[in-house]
Amino acid sequence: MRVYNFSAGPSMLPLPVLERAAAEMTDANGTGQSVMEMSHRSGDFKPIIENAETLLREILGIPGNYRVLFLQGGASLQFSMIPLNLAGVEQGEQKKRITLVDTGIWAKKAADEAAKYAELRVAASSADKAYTYIPPAPAPEPESAYYHITWNNTIVGTKWPAIPGAGSVPLAADISSAILSEPLDVSRFGVLYAGAQKNLGPAGTTVVVIREDLIGRAPSWVPAMLRYDIHCKEASMYNTPPCYGIYIIGLVLEWLKNLGGLEAMGKINRKKAALIYDYLDSSRAFCSPVDKSCRSLMNIPFILRETEGPQKKEIEGRFVAEAAGAGLVNLAGHRLVGGMRASIYNAMPLEGVEALIRFMERFEKTIGENQCSARYFCRGL
Ligand SMILES: Cc1ncc(COP(=O)(O)O)c(C=O)c1O
Fold it and tell me: Tens digit of pLDDT for each residue in 275-327?
């Protein structure tokens, strides 16, 4: 029996994609080989990577002056590659400036790496309220090499309500946990990146979309594997790319195209998220700690309205365990913030969300009156 997997990533893949991959496991496209066995430079693999890029360009609406890369190293390696390539300087030169908005743990990691190579300016932060909102972001200083945001904050469940203005400064965004979840105006960004393991495919592939004028700025000492110019020149084949992951990304993109693309996907995602938020806002037991203006469509943390004490831990543990028993798995919140979290990426069917809400309604009835009383309030993570 397949479960509904609410993991923040790696997470669910569409069932038709898995079934097709299974059917093609030993003989893909009549080649008599698995994609895992193909030479990445062969005529058998070429159409697979080209198909993935073509579909990604079409579905995400990537303008012609942007390059698409399929790399390795996860989104985490982009925390280093972006400053190295866009803000790195030759030895002895004065460091460049970078502007970043601090919206949570992933933004902080991007900042920590960037600060190794450049002078970092944090334009705004929502740390004062445990990152439960997106702060108003001032325009970056014009001399910044780039302006970095984390579009969707997987751990705390916030998403930027709109793309911030960056003037002439290239906007760099980590879109790992929201890529392809709804339409996005790529032309507003200088560089976008995402680890595949949420909305694109299996872990191991990172997609980078970069505007052409930003390629070729890395100083000479940056290693080859970390240079956008080399990866672009070699069309993601400087070394062996993550072939199987790229193949699955192609299948996921075909699934998404057949579904109606990002307009249709966005509509489904808004419906799924609204069901959960509406339930949380009216529940006597659970609530969302996130400001309504910037709630994520993909990652929905929730906490007990009862705020303190060992009882809370006990109830949370029971919730996660009983949900798993009911086929609703991976509902524990991130280890750094606790509570619970439902990640409902593109592949989570509406039925999974409905099953979760039914379970929560049933569970709510098992919690004693004192945990649900109106004197408790939702205090935030
Ligand atoms: C927003 C965001 N950025 C970066 C990462 C790190 O990704 P990776 O494990 O691919 O390096 C994650 C992982 O969950 C994430 O959610």
Answer: 999 999 999 999 999 999 999 999 999 999 865 667 888 899 999 999 999 99
Residue 379 lies in a domain: no
Average pLDDT across the chain, whole number: 95
Sites in the chain below the pLDDT cut of 50: 370, 372-381
| Same domain, yes or no: 95 and 223 | yes
Structural domain of residue 319, as residue ranges?
4-8+260-372
Q: Is 9's C-beta closer than 6 angstroms to any atom of ligand 1?
A: yes
pTM score of the predicted model: 0.96
- Whether cis (ω within 30° of 0) applies to the bond prior to 16 is no
Pocket test for ligand 1, best of 106, 152, 206 (most atoms within 8 A of CB): 106
Q: Which residues are catalytic?
A: 106, 174, 198
Residues 342 and 237 in one domain: no
Tens digits of residue pLDDT in 247-260? 999 999 999 999 99
Q: What percent of the chain has pLDDT over 90?
A: 91
Q: Examine the domain organization and report whether 218 and 278 are in the same domain.
A: no
Ligand 1 pocket member 345 (CB < 6 A): no
Q: Report how far ligand 1's centroid is from the alpha carbon of 195 (Å).
A: 6
7 lines ligand 1 (CB under 6 A): no
Examine the fold and report which residue of 199, 228, 259 is the final residue of a domain before the chain moves on: 259
